[in-house]
Amino acid sequence: MAEAHQAVAFQFTVTPDGIDLRMSHEALRQIYLSGLHSWKKKFIRFKNGIITGVYPASPSSWLIVVVGVMSTMYAKIDPSLGIIAKINRTLDTTGCMSSQTKKVVSGVIFGTGLWVALIVTMRYSLKVLLSYHGWMFTQHGRLSRTTKIWMFMVKIFSGRKPMLYSFQTSLPRLPVPAVQDTVNRYLESVKPLMKEGDFTRMTALAQDFAVNLGPRLQWYLKLKSWWATNYVSDWWEEYIYLRGRGPLMVNSNYFAMDLLYIIPTHIQAARAGNGIHAILLYRRKLDREEIKPILLLGSTIPLCSAQWERMFNTSRIPGEETDTIQHLRDSKHIVVFHRGRYFKVWLYHDGRLLRPREIEQQVQRILEDPSEPQPGEAKLAALTAADRVPWARCRQAYFGHGKNKQSLDAVEKAAFFVTLDETEQGYREEDPETSMDSYAKSLLHGRCFDRWFDKSFTFIVFKNGKMGINAEHSWADAPIMGHLWEYVMATDSFQLGYTEDGHCKGDTNPNIPYPTRLQWDIPEEDMGKFSLTYEASMTRLFREGRTETVRSCTAESCSFVLAMVDPTQTVEQKLKLFRIASEKHQLLYRLAMTGAGIDRHLFCLYVVSKYLAVDSPFLKEVLAEPWRLSTSQTPPQQVELFNLDRNPDYVSCGGGFGPVADDGYGVSYILVGEDLINFHISSKFSCPETDSHRFGKNLREAMTDIISLFGFSPNSKK
């Protein structure tokens, strides 16, 4: 094969006449360009490390400070209050500098120290300012004078042109709420769900915990909060995600959909070419930290960017007790799955990223490859869809050496995983319900063996050109993946584009080596009522923050729901209860976002109790409560990429996830502009009490009823 010959830089043979040495100039050239590319990336990382390390100052500000200090010294003014003189006397002991040199060195040392002190002061001042969250509790659209002054101060200390990770060291730590406050909020959240006798018993358990065991656990938790950058995130990742022994498919992984109405091309290879190239452009921006940090409140308040670090070159590795996350600094290939076969595709040629037309060419080569799957290869990825313990044991027994290890390494060390699906999916106007159900199911689980569920994400391209993503959850939350996906859809449609015949723009390149088939050796035995409601909120106002639970089924929301089905209630009474329920819901969201939530605090107290080997009936009962309704939204973050007023057809349905409880629902929703809300509703066929279509019908009816309260018809344009 051509790639095998190009992979060898030189060959030699021993003959009776001596050693015959043959060198491949093309291979040596590719090695040189690859090395040059690697050194460029290292230099960019080094440069970005310096820029981020001195933020909110800039490297050039060091020169300004030093020149300023030297200028005052030559003007016979001592800006150091005698410190420069002390440095000078210390340098005297070396005896190897002239007096002029010592003077300059002393000034530079003091200037550098002053510069570092200014950076630390600005950074600490910004951290103190960002610890204020009063702005979140003000009425929407109205800012108090205090908040305006505070915003002005934040902008002063925030520096100019921040990079993705510039604010990380300035973000405050997530505070630990008081035990009694969390217990009170918990009791308030479960009161509408319990009978009076059950609530009395739970109140007694909760108050006993708050007085006796709670303060002891809280002491350890506060100790951790002083030591760790975030007292929740590492335990949340380990105990909620990595120690989970159930399948990732449906239970943990989630999906994102393509544009709803538009398919830019029906050529599968072309759509894959543009999509893969757009993803790689995003990775390059991420490596260079050119992605702007997310800022709230008029581009003032930064959110934590830590979750971006493991987006690419990442795989979840199964273990018998706990999984681990393997992340590489770089990866120069992807792995593509098609018709039961795995192909390794290099992403660079001549020291540059493959262009969209070249990637299309590589994908087309895979689609046209007539070879059949090797024994056991076709459904190999089903191992990643199963329980974690059998997969961990199988991986250790059969994938620890030889060609299986090499091929598995290629998959796990790939930048990401690509599936060329053989089905056609997407919205069909003649049968929207069935077509969207099929599309969502394919993205959520496919055929169980055609997605590598352990990869940070699998990029899926269907036969008719539709695309989507299935993402693993432990490394980051959905808004991070959503940010990438928004960029990919916008870049594909508005920047890269296609030719009139549907191919990627540009020319093919016959010199690019063919994709490489991965080789496997698979032994034969290895083939083949009101409910507690979870709504996710984010805590990324704090360093390394992830999510917090909003218990949205409150007494106020229950009163509103009961009023809506009570014919004796007037519209005015229903509106009043609606506003009360909405205000309560917003308050719960604000409390969750500012570190005063319920569930993460109780979860961490439970972890501490396990470490201390003490039993808490209250905590055990709280954490055993089933979340029968799990809801979440992924709001658009880069609205500037899509102008829906001018391009109304370029709208995406967002993505979704599976139900948390066997007898529950998973509801994902996305607010698209001012005129559209999309819902993804999932439930298990095995439960006779749940029906996603019935739930969706009831949800639509409930929203229509709420619209009617305000005097609008469901199709009103107001």
UniProtKB/TrEMBL annotation:
Active site, renumbered: H473
Mode of membrane association: Multi-pass membrane protein
Domain Carnitine O-palmitoyltransferase N-terminal: start-end pairs: 1-47
Localization per Swiss-Prot or TrEMBL: Mitochondrion outer membrane
Pathway annotation: Lipid metabolism; fatty acid beta-oxidation
Sequence intervals crossing the membrane: 104-126
The species this protein was found in: Bos indicus x Bos taurus
Primary localization: mitochondrion
Gene: CPT1A
Signal peptide stretch: none
A single MF term (Gene Ontology): carnitine O-palmitoyltransferase activity
Top-level class of the enzyme under EC nomenclature: transferase
Family of this protein: Belongs to the carnitine/choline acetyltransferase family.
Entry GO CC: mitochondrial outer membrane
Taxonomic placement: Eukaryota, Metazoa, Chordata, Craniata, Vertebrata
Protein name: carnitine O-palmitoyltransferase
InterPro entries cross-referenced by the UniProt entry: Carn_acyl_trans, CAT-like_dom_sf, Cho/carn_acyl_trans, Cho/carn_acyl_trans_2, CPT_N
